[in-house]
TrEMBL record, chain A:
Keywords: FAD, Flavoprotein, Oxidoreductase. Its cofactor is FAD. GO terms for biological process: fatty acid beta-oxidation using acyl-CoA dehydrogenase. Transmembrane segments: none annotated. This is Medium-chain specific acyl-CoA dehydrogenase, mitochondrial. Coiled coil: none annotated. Residues 231-380 form the Acyl-CoA dehydrogenase/oxidase C-terminal domain. One of its GO terms (cellular component) is cytoplasm. Residues 118-215 form the Acyl-CoA oxidase/dehydrogenase middle domain. It comes from Hyphomonas beringensis. It comes from the Bacteria. One of its GO terms (molecular function) is acyl-CoA dehydrogenase activity. Belongs to the acyl-CoA dehydrogenase family. The keyword Amino-acid biosynthesis does not apply.
Automatic annotation (TrEMBL), chain B:
This is Acyl-CoA dehydrogenase/oxidase C-terminal domain-containing protein. The keyword Protease does not apply. Gene3D superfamilies: Acyl-CoA dehydrogenase/oxidase, N-terminal domain, Butyryl-CoA Dehydrogenase, subunit A, domain 2, Butyryl-CoA Dehydrogenase, subunit A, domain 3. One of its GO terms (molecular function) is flavin adenine dinucleotide binding. Residues 225-355 form the Acyl-CoA dehydrogenase/oxidase C-terminal domain. The keyword Ligase does not apply. Keywords: FAD, Flavoprotein, Oxidoreductase. Belongs to the acyl-CoA dehydrogenase family. Its cofactor is FAD. It comes from the Bacteria. Residues 120-209 form the Acyl-CoA oxidase/dehydrogenase middle domain. It holds the Pfam family Acyl-CoA_dh_1. Residues 7-105 form the Acyl-CoA dehydrogenase/oxidase N-terminal domain.
Length: 388, 358
């Protein structure tokens, strides 16, 4: 039966996250200003939360009392802006490690399982279109090694992690067509050269670098049994989360805006019709409606995932809808709130301008908005390559 | 606990209404629009589905199910859906808020064999009308009240036996059950509107109409007028979602078949992306409506979410009808396709207030 109530445990988990995000606020500006210059990412647990329960760890234990593990997780991500990471959640964000866990053999897990691995897909000439990848691996029969050459850019947390799982093209045997192959790359290997951290618009807590592979030799055992599809198989799970994270910052910004409007004597009256409210209030209400509409698409995708299992392809269009909807809403909501708040919102004294910058990434990575629309339209029309 | 699963009963009702809509409602949409009149045989057939009647029974009352049904009907014709929703708004306001005498009196209408036109009378004839600024006023007079003012855009006004008139009363607002034949009630000719033409929207003037004591909805304590408005906003949002879904369903095969500059329209990104956006917005609307309707059904305060659903659906449905028409080019502008009608209906349903209920 259709139900939108939250369980007590859902609520408790959301509150825990919200409290922790609130604690983190105190460090938000400092991190925003310095992060990209000095990789000072926290390792371990920040003293400010040392005596608090880790909400995501708690979730694992109590998920049966929630609306569902992945549903509660999304609700937690949507709770409020998470400006800083007070816990080293490396494992959580190590998408390469996830590929290893899902598709590695026991031997591979034994060898690499303790590492935090980034995911290396994007290249200077291949972002949305992985087919354009140039990185290449060649098998060397004599040493039973692969030799890799190429460059990966925009690799999240590569500077902090122990290595990466990289997707590259592998020369086919006897000149047959190249196929995609996935390799575990461990830092320290000669020929694996880390690029400097990149400066960027927002989410500066989210470190970004890359690497060059120059005749990089890896043992044959480093090749995972994961083709292109498998490597990207957690996209369905992740895409609504990207949306949720952006919506979380939007929620904080909407709350901030509502409070400031109230302090300025502007009342939000939901009983009035369009013509009975000021343009300012009408604008705000429309932004709020975008938020609620996006919330529904995220919940819908997560509910399907909960029913079908994370690796099902049966909810991929809904996952794309949640991503496309929430990411675009985040752009509109944050731009709109700053316009409503006016010049004072530009000040770095408040986090409003930070949230405005932070959410912009959501419509770019994990498949930009345009890519989601290609996928959604293909599903609608029953197309494959007819639309690209 | 978050759940999007419809019950088997809800699915069965939706399926039944969907079939009925496809076979009976959709085929008559154009002719009703042209005639500016509902098909009475069709409306009687809908009445016999007992959608409205069952909602008025204690164990049949479900705002959520009512919302689902309105969306299904509106996928065939928003005018028919709104006509049903209008009668439903009247009946449910009395069922939910009425005194036992008022509910008793309603039974007569509910037992009738054919469709009963009954309407709320909320909007008023002024540009920039706002629901917060009603001018129609009721004052206590003797043992009853006197009602003075004018209401506009009342659905099927000339066929209604009775109106539920929302008016200013004392410090707030109240609703009054006013028979169409009461002295001083003047139902004007339908004004011929741009959209929802079969609803024969018209103005109703209340010139010093005497109303007995028992006609105030809910009796002397009055009733929660805002909840009637909330329900209308959510119901209208459901109708808009049905209309949007109809546009999507109509556009998809057309853009796949229509070859322009050597390839199907659907293979051109500017078209494909807009179709994707129609799907995104239609789904987003639907889940938001579900949540508003669920709030109503579970007795929470739905004012905020209803307003947001109504606002979002209104903006998006107008855009969807607009984009749908654009994709058909000249074929969308002429009457061989329903796009131009949907374009008109989208504007109408999204600016009306208080014409529906769940
Ligand atoms: C903060 C951050 C973190 C990242 N983390 C990682 C990571 O951990 N690992 C990793 O591998 N990558 C990562 N990326 C890379 C990210 O996934 C890419 O930036 C993204 O896929 C887009 O690729 P691109 O930048 O090359 O843009 P392009 O592919 O060049 O796209 C440019 C524009 O063209 C549009 N476009 C592309 N194709 C089409 C089409 N067919 N039709 C219409 N429009 C189209 C896009 O939507 C976009 O708007 C990260 C990026 C950032 C900024």
């Amino acid at each position: 039966m259709v139900d939108f109530s939250l369980t007590e445990t859902d609520k408790k988990l959301i509150d825990l996250v919200r409290e922790e995000n609130e604690i983190g606020r105190a460090f938000a500006r400092e991190l925003d200003r310095t992060m990209e210059i000095e990789p000072s990412r926290l390792r371990g647990v920040h003293p400010a939360v040392a005596d608090r329960e880790d909400p995501f760890e708690l979730l694992e234990g109590v998920h049966e009392e929630t609306s569902g593990l992945v549903i509660a997780e999304a609700l937690m991500f949507m709770a409020s802006a998470q400006d800083v990471e007070l816990r080293d959640v490396g494992g959580h964000e190590a998408f390469g490690s996830m590929v290893l866990r899902n598709f590695g053999t026991d031997v591979q897990k034994e060898k690499y399982g303790h590492l935090n691995l980034a995911i290396g897909i994007t290249e200077p000439d291949a972002g949305s279109d992985p087919g354009a990848m140039r990185s290449y691996a060649r098998y060397d029969q004599e040493t039973d090694e692969y030799v890799l050459n190429g460059e990966k850019i925009f690799i999240s947390f590569f500077n902090k992690f122990d290595g990466a799982v990289a997707l590259v093209k592998v020369a086919g045997k006897d000149g047959s067509r190249p196929e995609f192959g996935t390799f575990v790359l461990v830092k320290g290997a000669p020929g694996l050269i880390e690029s400097p951290q990149m400066r960027k618009l927002g989410v500066r807590k989210h470190e970004l670098s890359g690497f060059v592979m120059q005749d990089l030799r890896v043992p044959a055992v480093a090749r995972l049994d994961a083709d292109f599809g498998k490597t990207l198989s957690n996209f369905n799970h992740n895409r609504p989360i990207v949306s949720a994270v952006a919506l979380a910052s939007c929620r904080s910004l909407l709350d901030f805006t509502r409070d400031k409007l109230k302090a300025a004597g502007v009342e939000l009256d939901y009983t009035q019709g369009t013509s009975g409210r000021s343009a300012l209030v009408d604008r705000f209400i429309r932004l709020e409606s975008l938020w609620e509409a996006s919330w529904g698409t995220v919940m819908r995708a997560k509910w399907l995932e909960h029913k079908q299992g994370m690796y099902s392809n049966g909810y991929r269009t809904e996952a794309s809808i949640a991503k496309a909807m929430g990411a675009k809403a985040a752009r509109d909501i944050t731009q709109g709130c700053l316009e409503i708040l006016g010049p004072e919102s530009l000040s770095e004294e408040y986090l409003a301008e930070k949230w405005f910058r932070d959410v912009r990434i959501a419509d770019i990575y994990e498949g930009a908005g345009e890519i989601q629309r290609v996928l959604i339209a293909r599903d609608i029309f029953g197309y494959k390559k007819e639309l690209s | 606990m978050i759940d999007f699963e419809l019950t088997e009963d809800q699915k069965a009702v939706c399926e039944m209404v969907r079939d009925f809509t496809a076979n009976e409602v959709a085929p008559l949409a154009r002719s009703q629009d042209t005639a500016g009149e509902l098909d009475s045989a069709l409306m009687d057939a809908i009445w016999q589905l007992e959608i409205v009647q069952s909602q008025c029974e204690p164990d049949g009352r479900s705002a959520f199910l009512a919302g689902l049904v309105l969306e299904e009907l509106a996928a065939g014709d928003a005018s028919v859906a709104t006509a049903v929703a209008s009668t439903m708004a009247y009946c449910l306001a009395i069922t939910d808020h009425g005194t036992s005498d008022q509910r008793q009196a309603l039974q007569e209408s509910l037992k009738a064999p054919g469709f009963q036109a009954l309407s709320l009378a909320v909007m008023e004839p002024s540009f920039g009308f706002s629901i917060g600024g009603l001018k129609t006023e009721a004052v206590a007079s003797g043992a009853g009240f006197r009602l003075q003012g004018a209401k506009s855009m009342v659905p099927l006004a000339s066929r209604c036996r009775s109106f539920l008139v929302v008016a200013r009363y004392q410090e707030g607002e109240a609703a009054f059950i006013v028979p169409a034949d009461a002295a001083g009630v003047l139902v004007r000719e339908p004004c011929q509107t741009v959209g929802l033409r079969p609803l024969e929207l018209s103005e109703v003037v209340f010139d010093n109409v005497g109303i007995p004591q028992g006609a105030m909805l809910g009796g002397s304590n009055g009733s929660n007028i805002q909840s009637i408005i909330d329900a209308s906003r959510t119901a209208q949002a459901c109708i808009m979602t049905g209309l949007s879904a109809a546009v999507l369903n109509h556009v998809v095969p057309y853009v796949k078949e229509r070859i322009v500059h050597g390839t199907p329209l659907a293979q051109k990104q500017s078209v494909a992306f807009r179709v994707a956006d129609i799907r995104i917005d239609t789904e987003a609307m639907r889940w938001m409506n579900w949540r508003s309707a669920w709030e109503i059904e579970t007795g929470q305060n739905p004012t905020r979410l209803s307003a947001l659903s109504y606002s979002f659906a209104g903006e998006k449905t107008m855009k969807i009808a607009d984009e749908g028409l654009q994709m058909f080019g000249g074929h969308g502008f002429v009457q061989e396709h329903p796009l131009e009608m949907w374009y008109r209906n989208a504007r109408a349903i999204s600016v009306l207030e208080g014409v529906a209920g769940i």
